[in-house]
Amino acid sequence: MKYIVANWKMNMNMQDVISWAAGFDTEVLNGKVTVIVAPSFLHIFPVAELMKKIGVEVSAQDVSIEEKGAHTGETGAFQLKEMCKYAIVGHSERKETAEVVAKKIDACLSEGLTPIVCFVEPEKIELYKRPGIIYAWEDPANISKNGVYKEKSTKEIKEGVKKIRAILKNNEPLLYGGSVNGQNVPDLVNIEKLDGVLVGNASLDPKHFSGIVAAY
After folding, report:
1. What is the pLDDT of residues 60-80, one digit of tens each?
2. Residue 124: pLDDT band by 50, 70, 90 thresholds?
3. What is the rounded radius of gyration, in angstroms, for the C-alpha atoms of the chain?
4. Distances (CA, A) of 116 to 26, 109, 124, 150
5. Count of beta carbons in the 10 Å neighbourhood of residue 19
6. Nearest-5° angle of CA 68, CA 69, CA 75?
7. What's the CA gap between 35 and 1, in Å, rounded?
8. Which residue from 13, 144, 201, 209 has the fewest beta carbons nearer than 10 Å?
9. How many other CB atoms are there within 10 angstroms of residue 23's CB atom?
10. Catalytic residues
């Protein structure tokens, strides 16, 4: 199974989401790829209802380390599991310590949520290893900004994937994130033992994103 994750970050309002759902090409869904979108917390419920109609899964963009209680502004895994199956954990933009990320992984797994665990340094994987995780290798220096994509050679990504696989050893899903777009995805598709991509800016355009999914 391949995974294509759209991290919308803090970009979409509800009208944008409705337009996105209408513009996404459902013909690219073929059962070989799990497509996941990650809206803001505020929109998870209505987005889940919309995506159910077109065969797309939903993820949270974060999760609390706390189980339950007096934690104003936090959203717990026990709440998220009512709306979605996945949660992005440890995205580089959040600048969290490995210890915090590990606690969030455990919070997800304890409630049956699948964590999409972001990491920059492959060495951190040893702290995160658990059954039932999707791993997403990020390169912060290569993350697109303001719609401008940065280039990282396919050779560099292949070498990184090989290094990460030597640490993982098993067949856990491994994704790549960093300026993924319609131009470079054909090369990413052909990288051995890479199971998909984490898409940022390019996922905001449903036609562009549909093309990325179609490549898989």
Report:
1. 999 999 999 999 999 999 999
2. confident
3. 16
4. 23, 11, 14, 23
5. 13
6. 55
7. 11
8. 13
9. 13
10. 91, 138
Return the ∠ at Cα 206 (arms to 43 and 52), rounded to 5°: 50
Q: Give which of 85, 141, 89, 133 is closest to 113, Cα–Cα.
A: 85
Residue 185 pLDDT level (bands cut at 50, 70, 90): very high
Specify whether the CB–CB gap between 32 and 54 falls below 8 A: no
Q: Tokens 């009512």 correspond to what residue? A: 82
DSSP-assigned letters across all residues of 138-203: E-GGGS-BTTB-----HHHHHHHHHHHHHHH-S---EEEESS--TTTHHHHHTSTT--EEEESGGG
- Tokens (6 digits) for 27: 């013909």
CA 24/CA 12 separation, integer angstroms: 15
Distance, CA of 14 to CA of 162 (rounded, Å): 40
Enter the tokens of residue 86. Answer: 């996945």
Query: Which amino acid would we find at residue 209?
Result: F
pTM here?
A: 0.93
Beta-bridged to residue 115, according to DSSP, are 87
Q: Which architecture does CATH list for 2-215?
A: Alpha-Beta Barrel (3.20)
